[in-house]
Amino acid sequence: MSKIIDGKQVAANVKETVRLRAVEFEKSHGRKVGLAVVKAGDDPASAIYVRNKIKACEACNIASFSYYFDSGVTEAQLLELISALNDDKNVDGILVQLPLPKGIDERRVLSAIAPEKDADGFHALNAGKLFLGEATGSVACTPRGIIELIKSTGEDICGKHAVVVGRSNIVGKPVAMLLLQNNATVTICHSKTTGLSDITRTADILVAAVGKKKFITRDMVKKGAIVIDVGMNRDDEGLFGDVDFEGVKDVAGYITPVPGGVGPMTIAMLLMNTVDGARA
Ligand code: GUN
What we know:
Elements: E1 3-4, H1 7-29, E2 33-40, H2 44-59, E3 62-69, H3 75-87, E4 93-96, H4 106-112, H5 124-132, H6 141-152, E5 161-165, H7 172-181, E6 185-189, H8 196-200, E7 205-208, E8 226-229, E9 233-235, E10 238-240, H9 245-248, E11 254-255, H10 262-279
Helix pairs in contact: 1-10, 2-10, 6-7, 6-10
Guanine binds at residues 95-98, 120, 141-142, 170, 266.
């Protein structure tokens, strides 16, 4: 009798708020909120994400400007484009889809984005503000969406033990910071953690962001836990999360499906970051 968290529905509510704000912005500023989307290389998953992000912009009255490069793009070309976008008054948010082609320094490219146009919250200044608990920066979209999904259950985060499996810069580390801000007791686990399942079994909130199909199994989950599955693992059999959904769903109190859980929230929060950036 576990409860499935409907990410599409929660995302639809967020996007409606974004749309209303974007319409109001257009009325008061005489132009639409604008998001620039930069994609380089031929990663098939990135192509899907970018397409979905652009579609979502249309639905929310946000103008999107797309820039696609093949995998031969140079770092200098990307830096030149970002510099122009930083100066473009019609662009409120800039998103560089990751991963970038081999040989390009992602950190250098992301750092070139003006922090106030950093729709993804990946710039070191915004990551640092999150670390310091300063509310003026943009926060990475997936982590921000995860917190909304947890809150949508009506359960209080305060005082709970949250275990994050995965320590990436775009999910694991920032979601741990947000959970801490919400007064959870946070444990970050990763591929070198010993006794992983002993730790995950103590989690009231379990965030799986490891990138391994069905990595979290039933025996690793505490009865009644809120389980958030960030995994997007594609293979010949389809799209799978990091959680063995069928095995875990009966023991969890709440669980996000893949697809239809975290994914739609990432996009909704990207649009929220963009419209918030425009209004600021
Ligand atoms: N690649 C995987 N997830 C993301 C994301 O949230 N933003 C960007 N820009 N690239 C990604």
